[in-house]
Amino acid sequence: MKAPNPDTLKAVKDIQRPVITFAVARAEGSPTAYFGCSDFKVYAGDPTAAKFEPKELYAHESYVTGVALAGTTLVSGGYDGKLTWFDTKAGKTIRTHDAHAKWIRKVIASPDGKLFASVADDMACKLWDAATGKLVHELRGHAEKTPNDFVSMLYAVAFSADSKLIATGDKVGHVVVWDAATGKQLGAVEAPVMYTWDKVQRLHSIGGVRSVAFSPDGKALAVGGMGKVGNIDHLEGKARVEVFDWKAGKQTAEFPGDKFSGLVNRLAWAPDGSWLVGAGGAGEGFLLFFDPAAKKTLKQEKVMMHVHDFAMSAKADEIVCVGHNRITVHKLG
Predict the structure, then answer these.
(1) Which domain holds residue 217?
(2) At 183, which CATH number?
(3) What SS3 state is found at 174?
(4) How confident is the model at residue 1 (pLDDT cuts 50, 70, 90)?
(5) Order of strands across the sheet with 307-312?
């Protein structure tokens, strides 16, 4: 099925929120979406409804930075290091794990619904059985310290469309590809431009790989972040995306950004592989569409918030973005 043209993108909803929404998950064919927020709570609601009326489901002990859905099972993770399993049909919590020793940055579900993956600042990616909650693999291939001997962070994780591969990305631009079944490392790529170290003024760093996404055939891996920064205290670097042939460890396309500044926090491919979309921001946000094969930018759209995450429909005809005090809905086609 041919994906809709990015030129048809239009904003159809702009919802004001009193909180930052860090993560969103949505089941295909359902209007209900699930949101992880800065008030420590997880909500459910229909962002396309005439009036958005989110319902509080449960709470963490800190920011909720990841939500993922497999069937009727919702898993959320937060800065409290905990993962919570929630039955969306029964409306009750199933279990809570002390999953990571440090902040959880992201939680995702495999496309086949069998696994959940979580990444955190303890530099571990953990794969969990979606049905039982049991730990399947603990993947460790990222250094705990940066080359300058400061603590690193593990921000990004993604499954391939066939659920066989998983990619993880860290603060210094190191990305690892794993076999989801065995936990074996299969390859790695480097995006060092996405990491800025200030060795003079602040002895501090910024940036990192904030998003990863496999092409539908699993051969290409897109990596999102931000270009080099002059002022280490601000997200002033240009939004940056690189695409790799991960098996060869070779960059095949580079989009250094020319219009928007800030981090690319989420990436996704069109189901037919014809384009790639990234979202993120600094003071303001953006949706960026690329043609990796032609190595060209297709569309750059301003979004009235720093976008932390989005949920895209299977047909790529709807994108629900979440971020600073807003939820937006865009249609394509």
Answers:
(1) 6-331
(2) 2.130.10.10
(3) strand
(4) confident
(5) 55-59, 41-45, 33-37, 10-26, 318-331, 307-312
